Prior knowledge:
Elements: E1 3-8, H1 13-26, E2 30-36, H2 43-46, E3 54-61, E4 66-73, H3 78-88, E5 92-97, H4 120-130, H5 135-144, H6 152-164, H7 174-194, E6 199-204, H8 208-217, E7 236-243, H9 246-249, H10 262-271, H11 273-290, H12 297-314, H13 321-332, H14 355-365, H15 380-391, E8 400-403, H16 407-421, E9 427-431, E10 442-447, H17 453-460, H18 467-482, H19 486-498, H20 502-518, H21 522-538, H22 548-566, H23 578-593, H24 602-613, H25 620-633, H26 641-647, H27 651-674, H28 681-691, H29 694-708, H30 713-726, H31 733-737, H32 743-762
Parallel strand pairs: 1-6, 2-5, 2-6
Antiparallel strand pairs: 3-4, 3-7, 8-10, 9-10
Helix pairs in contact: 1-3, 4-5, 7-8, 10-11, 11-14, 12-13, 16-18, 18-19, 19-20, 19-21, 20-22, 21-22, 21-23, 22-23, 23-25, 24-25, 25-27, 26-28, 27-29, 29-32
Amino acid sequence: xxxTYLGVRHHSPAxxxxxxxxxxxxxxxxxxxxxxxxxxxxxxxxxxxHELPVAVFSHYRDxxxxxxxxxxxxxxxxxxxxxxxxxxxxxxxxxxxxPAWHPAFAGRANRYADAELRYAEATARLRHxxxxxxxxxxxxxxxxxxxxxxxxxxxxxxxxxxxxxxxEADAADASDQARxxxxxxxxxxxxxxxxxxxxxxxxxxxxxxxxxxLADAGPGGAAEWPAVPAPPEGxxxxxxxxxxxxxxxxxxxxxxxxxxSPAYHQWLWEDGPEAAGRxxxxxxxxxxxxxxxxxxxxxxxxxxxxxxxxxxLRGHPVPGRLDLLDALAGALVTEALDEPLPWxxxxxxxxxxxxxxxxxxxxxxxxxxxxxxxxxxxxxxVHDVAARLTALGLDGTAPVTLRLTDPAGLxxxxxxxxxxxxxxxxxxxxxGPADGTDPVAEERWEPRPAAGRDAALxxxxxxxxxxxxxALVALGDxxxxxxxxxxxxxxxxxxxxxxxxxxxxxxxxxxxxxGLAAAxxxxxxxxxxxxxxxxxxxxxxxxxxxxxxxxxxxxTAVTRVLWLVEGTAPGGAAxxxxxxxxxxxxxxxxxxxxGPILTVPRDAAADVFRRVAADPAAPPDLRGAAHGLVRVLxxxxxxxxxxxxxxxxxxxxxxxWLAGLFAVAxxxxxxxxxxxxxxxxxxxxxxxxxxxxxxxxxxxxxxxREAFAWFPPTxxxxxxxxxxxxxxxxxxxxxxxxxxxxxxxxARARALEDHVSxxxxxxxxxxxx
Length: 769
């Protein structure tokens, strides 16, 4: 009896071919495959006749830990070939790795994440030896370039021995050691059970040296199959098949394991390297031409000739993937690139990549999406959602408008929001309350492509068997992830309310209040305050209006913002702090509309803002907002806005000060103008701007534009009309607001022209000379 160890790279066509040839040659009694051993009784489900790629999605949850992972399989995965060819040859096939829920997989989202990536030093030495840029280029040169080489198995052994290093000084981490110890026990049992017949072991090549050593060092004797570990009592775990896609398999899209360019490797698997190369060149040319790029026949002839030359130079029997991509880039990219070609490294494309390069990567990736056989078992959540959608009439394709004051409409809204929270495609809300500040009682949902819904529902099954429970658990996870980030907690709170998850709302508000009390910046406080205040004021529909817990959160946020604002140190980033200004808007609304629940009286808050407005060390936008808040909150008359504007007229200050004023008191300032105040703001600002030098105007312009952005378009148009009227001109205010170019660019161009003119005059080269 012999044990043959094949160390493979996941999703390698060359390794898959080697597995198929080895099974045919050995006709083994057992084929042992790296895969979750708790699926050993479900091979019939795995082999129903799915359209690959597919993946086994596994999930686990207990009071201490939650984890999900995928085990992807495509037509050229060596593990898939071991499974299918082994069964066809009459072998008993077993998955021999630990289940995905096991702590050995903690922090690993993909079972087949390449272990050798954690040993960069070894692969770096090999890349230097073979003069290649990346691990993928090294692999292509050593393995994929000649998949039918008679010494392929020896090449693989040499490569993975070099990656793993000295077995006597093995530096594998504890998770790898636990997995390998378990897999070695399966190998020993199969060796004992096989008698005189061979055993084939197919695992990631990184594990092969350790498995051989551990299996040989272990005890022999009668076959004792290892027990499959059971999840701890009280935990929730499971594994289900889901459709997968080539994009998810592609390392250029961020996949951490296996091979890049899955579409190319599918062609390589189906038709061999020459046909795959011809198809790659043809598909790239067609795709670029379809998108309006010029691709001449001469360029393609040059690319084919270059690919043949590169293959000969690199010792490849026929042009491989990198030969073809390098040749196409040389023929189709005629300008200098800002960064190296993406196939010289690992990871996603970076923004700004050349269009031809983007299309080449896209062609190699492909757009294939797997499909499960109709008889594939699904988790209970899939059936629960289908039944709920049908019962509420939401299984159609028409837009849906829901009245939230109608109990039936509210039920349908909560169902759709729960699907949204779980990330299930099919509907998108296009109208409705965006947060607690919107007193809106109607929603509109539009149908969207539901591709990927089944896979999303299977994955969401990790949260629970029923939609209500799953949404509640997902919201709880988000709340825990938010920690003390009160802005994130506010978003979770709103989603909790619209989902009708009342069991979570109370504890969440308590956590939110603790986060508010500890917040160190006004911006996140403002987001949370606006949400809590809106829910407290308006949401009778959801049953939380005038909720005492929300009232306490509103009070905590207002007190904290006031404390932080009065202690704001000078300096910081230039320009107005929009997040801080939005927080002050929320404080204003709370003081105006929720005074009875606040610890700080309205008059005391006005005193705080008087002090801030008069503090020369406070940031200009904060002083402007404080002045506006005093105007809004004070019960006695205050000085006119014109006087305050003149006091803040410095070009570097004026725009920021006005931004603060307009953020919190835009309507009050507009009302003062409408009353015919002799110090009307438009006139004062017009006088100040006219009096500025060109240099001062260029300094003030960006902040002034940002300040007036707080006005809606209709009000900006009225301000423009006042300016036209004030100057005794006639014209369209709307046209005045629609400049043919960026006003900042026009102002800088004017300043540059003036500077050039003055320089020429100083040198005696002016136009008048």
